[in-house]
Specification:
Length: 143
């Protein structure tokens, strides 16, 4: 089964870098990060913006079709969680939020090497897999 898992890279960045990346998901304003993203055909999406987009879409379409609506809305309305998710970015590769292990490993190594330079603003690099045993599961509907 291990071969079937896919992976995702997320980074946590400084407040200053977060503001720049929200306006510039290709990181044109910071050449070393832009180069890493370009080499991997990747872009960044701010977790807070993704959550806010989900809530907005649910409210426009009808929340019944969005099982995580309540949890997500409460998350973005909580000041502590908002601050956390404004600094958290998911790395998308070829427009996809999950991808092969080799891609994730390469991205992780490149981003971790950038994080060694405090000027990068990258504070942490995380690699997640799609194995449910390794990840908290979303709250049940209504919770």
């Amino acid at each position: 089964m291990q071969d079937t898992w896919q992976f995702q890279i997320r980074i946590t960045v400084s407040d200053e870098r977060a503001a720049a990346l929200r306006a510039d998901p290709a990181a044109q304003s910071y050449a070393p990060l832009h180069d890493v993203l370009s080499q991997h055909r990747a872009t960044l999406t701010c977790q807070f913006d993704a959550f806010a987009g989900y809530v907005k879409e649910a409210e426009e379409v009808g929340i019944a079709a969005y099982p995580l609506y309540e949890w997500t809305r409460q998350t973005i309305e909580n000041p502590e969680k908002k601050a956390k998710y404004l600094r958290s970015f998911t790395v998308y590769v070829d427009g996809e939020q999950i991808y092969a292990k080799e891609t994730a490993d390469s991205l992780e190594a490149a981003l971790e090497s950038l994080a060694l330079d405090s000027a990068s603003g990258i504070e942490r690099v995380f690699k997640y897999d799609t194995n449910p045993a390794n990840n908290p599961q979303p709250p049940r509907s209504g919770g």
